[in-house]
Amino acid sequence: MSHYEQAARLQSDAGLCFFLSAALVADAVEEGVDTDGVHFVVGTLTGRLAAGGRFDEFAHAWVELPSGVLAPTVSITSVMRRDDYYRTNEVRDAARVPASVVAALVEQHGIGTQALTSALLTAAGYRFRVVSGSVLPAL
């Protein structure tokens, strides 16, 4: 079973973007796809409507390809223009992890583990905190 198939079977929405994105990158590396310019990316987005009608910041992950952005929580077949994705989602603090590092971390920690999420965000240099199971930017 591919890493992506493993990630797609996870039952939780919390952190799914991290697992799906890492899985796609790791599968590409394992399949021998040219991953030059392919990165796991984590950044801060604003806009998830929270309780009380306010908007919160949250950490989100996606895959960047030389041709644009692949957001696996939306689609794994549609590549979006990077500028459009960043503008639409009000992306800030984007940090990248090269494909080879992502594959090694997936091999070490497995898909669907908190250890993988922490390792990916640490490798990206993204400062974060976990609150009630959600990954948020550090204060």
Structural overview:
By secondary structure, this protein is α+β, with helices and mostly antiparallel strands. The chain has one domain. Helices cover 36% and strands 30% of the residues. It is built from five helices and seven strands. It has helices spanning 3-8, 16-30, 82-88, 99-109, 114-124, and strands at 39-49, 55-65, 68-70, 79-80, 92-98, 128-131, 134-137. The strands form two sheets. The chain has a five-stranded antiparallel sheet. Helix 2 packs across helix 4 (99-109) and helix 4 runs antiparallel to helix 5 (114-124). It is globular. The mean pLDDT is 91.
Keywords:
36% helix, 7 strands, 139 residues, single chain, five-stranded antiparallel β-sheet
Topology:
Layout (H helix, E strand, L loop, with lengths): L2 H6 L7 H15 L8 E11 L5 E11 L2 E3 L8 E2 L1 H7 L3 E7 H11 L4 H11 L3 E4 L2 E4 L2
Antiparallel strand pairs: 1-2, 1-5, 2-3, 3-4, 6-7
Helix pairs in contact: 2-4, 4-5
Give the tally of β-strands. Answer: 7
Average residue-wise pLDDT: 91
Global geometry: globular
Question: Which class of secondary structure composition applies to the elements?
Answer: alpha+beta
Number of domains: 1
What strand line-up does the widest sheet have?
A: 4-3-2-1-5
Spell the H/E element sequence.
HHEEEEHEHHEE
**pLDDT < 50 stretches:** none
Instruction: Measure the end-to-end span.
Output: 38 Å
